[in-house]
Write a structure and sequence with these properties.
- By secondary structure, the protein is α/β, with parallel strands linked by helices.
- Helix 5 packs across helix 10.
């Protein structure tokens, strides 16, 4: 084999595709084995199942001949061995296809498929706020509230791949109602504040107008179940840190308010449990699934 072909083969062996499939956006990165991001892109997530599959296959096809494996993280209760997504609360596009089977069959490459919160926790453990820690919990606050647990350096999936999903916990009955309170995603905060101001707004608007009493009241009402969920998770699993992921973690005001409320509700946690934002940002899931992929190759 001549030198050029050897270099080409080595390049292929050293590069991997990591895809983070969200309910709104599909983000993907070409990584070197050293976790250096070489290329990246994103596009709106297709909702119709057939078009969704075609979209993910097309992303992989762009890198055919350049990669040695594919890692995918997405919402759901995912069996990492079979690739089956057992979460019927997610969109049909996320459940209609076994992406592990589809991509490994079409591309002839090893494929790892894992829950996005689990991958975010591993990404933070490898390159973010979890570096050097053995025990951490993670809450992702996005289109839903997800969670993950790392204990003694190991990802805990649970018997049904639902471990750490603190967003499913019920915290008590609604005042004057028949339903129950649980932590809610940022979309619930946006809906609440939109109702207050009488028009559709977005997340940044909320944090730009917290000096307005009605908006702050809606924000505090939304924050309370998240603080209870964060504190309960810390009390039950005793991690060194609870990390907060999702786009909202870039809002320093939110992280500070959440930390302050948790430590008010659970004063003892302030002595030994850190609460802070994820540091790898939107790359957390892709770094984490690459870590899993490399461990299996």
């Amino acid at each position: 084999m001549d030198r050029a072909k050897k270099e080409e083969k080595k390049l292929k062996q050293d590069q991997y595709l990591a895809v983070d499939i969200g309910g709104t956006v599909v983000k993907y990165s070409l990584f070197h084995v050293s976790f250096e991001e070489l290329e990246h892109g994103e596009e709106a997530t297709e909702k119709e199942p057939k078009r969704f599959l075609e979209q993910i296959v097309a992303v992989a096809e762009r890198y055919r001949g350049r990669i040695a494996g594919i890692g995918i993280c997405m919402a759901g209760f995912i069996d990492p061995v079979t690739g089956e997504n057992q979460d019927f609360s997610v969109g049909e596009n996320f459940r209609a296809w076994n992406l592990k089977e589809e991509l490994s069959g079409r591309m002839g490459l090893p494929v790892v498929l894992e829950n996005d919160s689990n991958c975010a926790a591993l990404g933070e453990l490898a390159a973010g706020a979890g570096r050097g820690l053995s025990n951490l919990a993670l809450l992702t606050i996005g289109t839903g509230v997800g969670g993950a647990l790392v204990l003694d350096g190991r990802l805990i999936r649970g018997s049904h791949f639902k471990a750490g999903e603190a967003g499913l916990a019920l915290l008590g009955k609604e005042a004057g109602g028949t339903g129950y309170v649980s932590a809610e995603a940022t979309s619930a905060l946006v809906r609440s504040v939109s109702a207050v101001v009488g028009r559709q707004i977005d997340g940044p608007y909320v944090f730009g107008h917290l000096e307005e009493p009605d908006i702050e009241a809606a924000y505090r009402k939304w924050l309370e179940p998240l603080a209870l969920t964060t504190g309960n998770l810390a009390v039950m699993f005793d991690p060194e840190a609870v990390l907060i992921g999702g786009g909202i973690c870039r809002q320093a005001r939110f992280i500070n308010d959440l930390r302050q409320r948790v430590y008010t509700l659970f004063p003892h946690l302030g002595q030994y449990t850190r609460i802070e934002a994820c540091r790898t940002g939107n790359l957390a899931g892709r770094i984490g699934v690459l870590k899993l992929l490399l461990a299996q190759i």
